Amino acid sequence: MEGHKSDYPFRVAALRELFEETGILFVTDRRSKKRVVLTTVKDGKLDGWRRKIRANPSKFSELFTDFNLDLEALKPWSNWLTPVTFKHRYDTLFFVIPVDDEIEVQMCDKEMSEWLWITPREILERNCQSETGLLPPPQYCELMRLLNTRFNRLSAMCNPHRLCPQVIFSKENPDKIYEVLPGDNLYIPENAAHVRPRTMSEADISKSEVTDAIIHRMTYYEPSFFKLQLHIKNVDKDPERIRLFHIERTVC
């Protein structure tokens, strides 16, 4: 991932958090090297370790005597940086783990309110039907990428470049927000993570959408990312190919 020599500590942290919050642990057997998925639902001893680790995360390493943490189970997916318009900015790595079956979950009710197994399409459909909006732009965009990625292409579709949206406010409608992403012809690549928000007229924004222009942006209305949409066009013309989309359309 961009700016990091190794993602090893992030993989360990991600798998530890997954274990603490869901009771699911991805490991490999030290002798056979076979990949195994453990769950506290079926293992009382493992659940005891989970409680210890939640109280003291440094004990996580003590868990691994007969098996190793399966770091390769995680597929690096993307890296997002919060836009400059937010008071607090987060540099966040996203990983995905391909699974064949639904794994039993023991939810941590201190950090989660509910859980369910659901497809990207189902999540996006629920978001479209919501009157208040459910998904923030990064999660929305990445679910769209997952929806349009074949299961066996997950590793190939990893985006190693940090994505930092640049915000444009609509002059005619202050509640309408454009989040412009790398490759878009309105994106400013120089010092990209620190570009201040702009205000543009809808007419000027429309001029940027000429036939051969690269479009890679999201639009929504405040509050709560209402009517969030992703717009992509001519993405194959971007020499950097940092979004890895292979479709051209506006999606709800």
Question: What keywords describe this structure?
Answer:
252 residues, alpha+beta, Nucleoside Triphosphate Pyrophosphohydrolase, 2 domains, 6-stranded mixed beta sheet, 3-stranded antiparallel beta sheet, 5 helices, 21% helix, 24% strand, elongated, disordered C terminus, magnesium, manganese, NUDT19
Q: Mind summarizing the main beta sheet? A: 6 strands, mixed
Estimate the helix proportion, in percent: 10-25%
The first-to-last residue Cα distance is 29 Å
The share of residues in extended strands comes to 15-25%
Strand order across the largest sheet: 9-7-8-10-11-12
Mean pLDDT level:
88
- Helix segment tally: 5
Number of strands: 12
Shape: elongated
Label the structural class: alpha+beta
Determine Rg (CA atoms, Å). Answer: 21 Å
SSE succession? HEEHEEEHHEEEEHEEE
Instruction: Provide the low-confidence segments as ranges.
Output: 246-252
Keywords: Hydrolase, Magnesium, Manganese, Metal-binding
GO cellular component, one term: mitochondrion
Protein name: Nudix hydrolase domain-containing protein
InterPro entries: NUDIX_hydrolase-like_dom_sf, NUDIX_hydrolase_dom, NUDT19
Please characterize this protein's 3D structure.
The protein has a six-stranded mixed sheet with strand order 9-7-8-10-11-12. It has a three-stranded antiparallel sheet with strand order 2-1-3. It has a three-stranded mixed sheet with strand order 5-4-6, with helices on one face. The protein is 21% helix and 24% strand. Helix 3 crosses helix 4 (137-147). It has helices spanning 8-22, 44-55, 120-129, 137-147, 202-207; strands at 24-29, 35-39, 67-69, 75-81, 91-96, 162-163, 166-170, 176-180, 198-200, 215-221, 226-233, 249-251. It starts with 7 loop residues before the first helix and ends with a strand. The protein folds into two domains: 1-117, Nucleoside Triphosphate Pyrophosphohydrolase (Alpha-Beta Complex), CATH 3.90.79.10; 120-251, no CATH class. The radius of gyration is 21 Å and the shape is elongated. It has 252 residues and is α+β, with helices and mostly antiparallel strands. The chain has five helices and twelve strands.
